[in-house]
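Batch job 17 of 40 flagged for manual review because the log was empty.
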Amino acid sequence: MLSLLERREKMQALGLLCLMIIMSFIEVLGIASILPFMAVLSSPESIQTNQYLRMAYEFFGFDSTNRFLFVLGFVVLIVLVISNALKALTKWMILRFSHMQGYRLSRRLFSHYLNQPYSFFIAHHSSKMTRNILG
């Protein structure tokens, strides 16, 4: 398959691979952010017992647990929205890349057929060539 791709297309495929890896890490981060939020929501005293939550609570100078819960929930929501937006963008780019590859391969094959001598068309059935170009 790689032999059918030009250098530019191989670089695009590599870029898509990197984007998919980044997307997977952000998606894991989004899912993992829900659990601490749910833990704090179910028992707000965990803010004082968990060292990371306590550090965030003190660093940002929160004065009430409710305000901290609101901001924490908002941060989780933002992370999930960014994760889903990046996932949608990645899916769109993958679909676009794959459709463009099909188009380019069909165009190259069509161009190859057009450059053949007349004897080639006598020896090959036109419906098979059409099927190859469209498929």
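Reviewer: the log was empty due to a logging misconfiguration, but the result itself is present. The chain is about 85% helix and 0% strand. Unflagging and moving on to job 18.
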